[in-house]
């Protein structure tokens, strides 16, 4: 568990997800997917129940190369990061993460603290040697954040997203953990 002072003076707590967070996480996801078009799913498309989320949290907690962390301000869930490492020996050292923050908390460096936590965790595991991500190519704010934390551009995939009748490319980025 880590605590951070945000720009607005509030205290942010980041901790690993717990099984009892499952319902709260589903409610959070149902809210955050309405706030942005930058996710791989939209409103009503997540399709996971609280029970399935609890099973996922339990599986992640038992894995050496997976991580799910939540950000809280007081008792309010304001952000989440999920890192999924590879399941086979040849790719266990690498994985991809997703990150979300409630829109009202954008710009307070919650995403920065999440990614720093992830990088430190990866170093501590001594298993994770590469962290990958993909981001919509027009999400300039996120790309700027990832670059500031030393993620490097690794390629573009055309037409990765199809939202409201329009295609969007994705940028793939990564950071090596040594």
UniProtKB/TrEMBL annotation:
Matches recorded under Pfam families: Acetyltransf_1
PROSITE patterns recorded: GNAT
Name of protein: Acetyltransferase
InterPro entries reported in the protein's UniProt record: Acyl_CoA_acyltransferase (IPR016181), GNAT_dom (IPR000182)
Keywords from the named record: Transferase
Record GO terms (molecular function): acyltransferase activity, transferring groups other than amino-acyl groups
The species this protein was found in: Desulfitobacterium metallireducens DSM 15288
Transferase recorded as keyword: yes
Keyword Acyltransferase appears in the UniProt entry: no
Residue stretches making up the N-acetyltransferase domain: 12-178
